[in-house]
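Incident log, structure service

09:12 report received: a user says their structure output differs between two submissions of the same chain.
09:20 pulled the input from the user's history:
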Amino acid sequence: YLNNNNKMATTTPKDFTHLSAASIQTIAEAFGFVISDDVAKAFAPDVEYRLRDIIQEALKCTKRSRRNVLTTEDINAALRIRMCEPLYGFPSNMPSQEFVKVKGTNDVFYTYDEELDVNKLLSEPLPPPSIAINVVPHWLAIDGVQPLIPENPSLDSQIYYQERAKEREETLAKAKAKKPTVTGPPPLPSATEGGEKGGDEAGEKKEGDAQQHLQQQQQKEQGKFAPVVQHVLSRELQVYFDRITALLRGGGGANDEERGLLNAAIGTLQTDAGLANLIPYFAKFISTEVQTNLRNLRKLLAMMRAIEALVQNPTANLELYLHQLMPSVLTCIVAKRLSENPEKDNHWQLRVLASKTVAEICECYGEEYATLQPRVTATLQKGLKATQSPLPTIFGALVGLSSLGPRVIETVVCPELDRIVQRAEDILSNTEKSILALGNKNEQNLTEEERTSREEKMYERLCAEKVLEAVELATDVLHERELADQREEAKRSALQNRVERMLARVRETKRAEAEQATRRPSAGALPPIIKEALKDEAKETTKRMLEAAVKKEEEEEKEEDIQEGEPVLEKATKARGAKSSTAAEKKKKEAEEDKKKAEAEAATAASKKRKAKSKSPTPPPPKAGGRSSRRAVSKPPEEEVKPPPAKRSR
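09:34 re-ran on a clean worker, output below:
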């Protein structure tokens, strides 16, 4: 428990002393255990703790439900929260019950339970079956008469429920009158309190119980049983069932005069949404009619159409009645003879219709019953594999197995096709010879035996032809599956080729974009490798341009040196020619020569300085910035501004 400060409060066994040990012993005895006082005292605190916990949870549920009264639903909710089994049989809308004290005790009570007669309950009519929530129309009155259906109020039903309520009140009154006390036996009822009336009713009840017991003994002696309880149908459903069954029995009439009515009846079976109560009756009717009319082709066709309509009805559920319908349908597939005159009647149509019905049943209910289609396949396989099976049975088995799908044909029919085809061809060749032998004679000259044998041979030939048609049908189903597989394969390959072409186109566009990017580089879009290559190429071009400029400057300097050296040579020759002059002149000339030498040296120094100045400084490497960088690299160097030549001294 939590105290006011939301802290866990310590509890001791002394806090739980409201539940006595005697109550614990009583509860244990109710479950068949006998415990001592010490054990009961030890269990009492824990039991009271559990009760307090459940009651607190129930009060929480009451508060959340915005109610002020604690109900049994709150107790059950608290038990479910505590992962306990709820208490059944005590709904919240149940009237208050009076507890009767057990004789000889002070604190043990019980509730009075009414004794019910099982035979009486079994003889009562069953309640209407529960159906899904939907809108169902019904007749309030027909020709001024109200039909006795559950939807309409019935006077008999009201009287019945009133009598039941009165009986219950009487039994409760008797239980109260017989309530014992602790001091002594229960008091006798007085005349003023209706004791005489109660005594008379008790005496009448005892006489009625004695008579009922005597009747039960007589029934046991005579070997009689309680009447069978039948399902209650409304008047409209009974009339509908009678009309439909009458049309199905007629089979459309001998001359098809009731063909339109039969088609309309089968149409209602296929679309009517209120046939839930009639399905068991229809299943029983169809199975009985098929068993008793195996030679009436009209009735059998009508029954197969009715089964097909019920299977196609989305609101009709035949799961519980397949054990009655499937034998009838399989009989119409593999039976040897299904009409009075099989040579002239088209019983092959009946076999094909029954095969389609079997396929629809397996498709609708195959998921709920996994053994349905294997059992049907095994039944048809027996008729197909038997060596002495008649040809109509083989035809029905082939058509039925073909309707179940190509896989069944591959596993069951294909291994037997060669034998069946060989047998049909042998019968065709033999019957052809015998018919030709009998055909040479005139019909008037044929005896009765010869005519019958001729008709039998013609029927055998017809059966063999029908079997070959069934074989062709099975092969066509397989061929259609192969064609479907081929179409699927072609679609798959076409889709794959289309995807490959799209991928190739995407690759080509990406390659073209990459090539275009390398042709027209941009600083933000080129990869780093291409940027480095462009930088290296720009460096090489600037280096070549600088080398060419240096070579050109060296050639120009050589030409200038040659032009400056010509007057110096002339003066030197003149000086050598004037050696024969006088010494004064010689000294003078030497001084002049020294001066000239100094000037020459100054000139050479000046030329060297000009060379150093004429050499242009190395430009920075151009950035890979597109056309602007290339234009900056390819710009020719500016022409050097030469200084004026120095004046020569005399």
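09:41 both user submissions now match this output. Likely a transient worker issue. Closing.
09:42 reviewer note: The longest helix spans residues 448-519. The mean pLDDT is 75.
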